[in-house]
Amino acid sequence: MASIQKDIxxxxxxxxxxxxxxxxxxxxxxxxxxxxxxxxLDGDARIVNFANGNIVRELLxxxxxxxxxxxxxxxxxxVIHHNASMQIIPEGEQRCRMIWITDVLPHEIVxxxxxxxxxxxxxxxxxxxxxxx
Length: 133
What we know:
By secondary structure, the chain is an alpha+beta fold. It has helices spanning 14-21, 27-31, 110-129; strands spanning 2-10, 36-42, 45-50, 55-64, 69-75, 81-90, 96-105. The protein is globular.
């Protein structure tokens, strides 16, 4: 199984970044607008519409307030296994890091998931960075 990790520096306080990450149904407005164009809640899941036209159902696995860690699993026709976590780690009062890890199968999908995570990471870094201003 492939494990893809992004370590994203954020120019904003950890609490502000975490508040956006933990808002499970607002990815398109609070976390990665532009990269994600719509998010709709469906029970413990969200239906995520990406800018590239892909639509993915993501199930909330855990939201750990103490560790500022959100875990979700995605399902789609192209992916056998997809589990991801986002964790916000403080680095002083005005900065933090997001550690975004995705475990995925099959191996053939890894280049696509890596590319999507790079685009998502850039979008989140910009949007969350605005919270620090």
